[in-house]
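Handout, section B. The chain below has 491 residues.
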Amino acid sequence: MSRFVRWTAVAVASALLAAGCGGGSSDDDKGGGGLSWGRCKATADAPAPGNDWQCATLKVPLDWSKPDGETIGLALIRAKARGDDRVGSLLFNFGGPGASGLSMMPSYAPTVSRLRERYDLVSWDPRGVGASEGVRCRGDKEIQAAESVDVTPDTPSEEKAYFRDAADFGEGCQKDAGKLMAHVSTADSARDMDRIRDVLGDDRMHYFGISYGTELGGTYAHLFPRRVGRMTLDAVVDPDADTVGHAQNQARGFQRALNGYLESTGQDPEEGTRKIAALLRRIDARPLPTATPGRKLTETLAVTGLTLPLYNKESWPTLTSALDAAERGDGSELLTLADGYNDRAPSGHYGTTTHSQRVISCLDDRQRPTAARTKELLPEFEKISPVFGPFLGWDTAGWCHDWPVPGQHDTPEVSAPEAAPILVVGNSGDPATPYEGARKMSGELGKGVGVLLTWRGQGHGAYGSGSDCVDSTVNSYLLNGSIPKDGKVCS
């Protein structure tokens, strides 16, 4: 788990397709500032996404303060609009930070098929992610070994190991990323987005941002307010929350989701929470055996496994089965869930989404809570959630501990009073980005800019989650420019 729990964990968990940037384009494939679009190649982990999809590489400055200096490559993917009445390109960011647009876009395309009637569907791997100078801070064996580190340390030796592991991770990132380490901020990516808009030939930025992608969208709107076109922000990160505030928001959001799950099984939420917290204490003292040779279920892996099914109500029965097995002394099912969250393949190979996530968020965030401050806050975290609070409380101190580069701000700036109306979509039952973030974002964008749409539902994100009201409202806005009444509620 991390400060910004990634949206991609469940909503597109079936995303098995990945795309590389291919060459071999024809003259007909050239467009948008001279980009050469070609067929997307297969990667080592997945086949190419099919003939509908094209890939290209866009060169942008490594350092935007030196626009004529060294460049890096951004990997882009697109599928052209099906209809003749084209609005332009619709750029997607799927969250994280660190989610790969190249792998996610083809899998998400069926969800937004209506939007392809009038838009080219476009996404990219942001700088420091995947095919765009992606960062790998550790090898597979080191990652698995670090799973034994107790992230809710109870003794001085465990605390020392926890912070040593955090510092080692940052050193590994610095060694791999080099100069890029100081140039992967959200503001850097927002400027990349404007270059993408320009080379695609659009006067305005049409954008769909999900989870962390909402912070990126808000940052873009602040930097380039007059270039905002039709922009939708779904599963909204609270722009007013600092490091501690984000962690407490997530503890609150996941506890709400856990309460909803417990109620659905006929349990009293308080009693059910105490039972799960007691199970975690037993696992902390004695990790559970699993069916995977050489691997046990630690408390860290158990909490991670608990988190994954709470992203989607459809996954709640899986959580019931995993908890029942753990109560019987078998950690196999929770381990499988944790591996899904941690992007671990059965072969033992780990993806790098969480590496990119940490590199980006620690460059954004200049706050570095100390161990002493965390210990002061722990009772408050535990009160918010006995299950998730300790984990997220310690995370405030460990996530960017001894980070090699300084952070840039306490909270992101998203005010955009000169921008066109932006549709902000909040889900009252969202565990990872609690609903309060949507209300805060709509207000921070500015009067008449942030237009709030509320869904009284469950899971991370609202669009494509089963609400015809949400989907039709978003589609009408993006396809026809129809702005709903601010404060509209979909039950």
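Note. The CA atoms of residues 98 and 353 lie 5 Å apart. Compare this with the example in section A.
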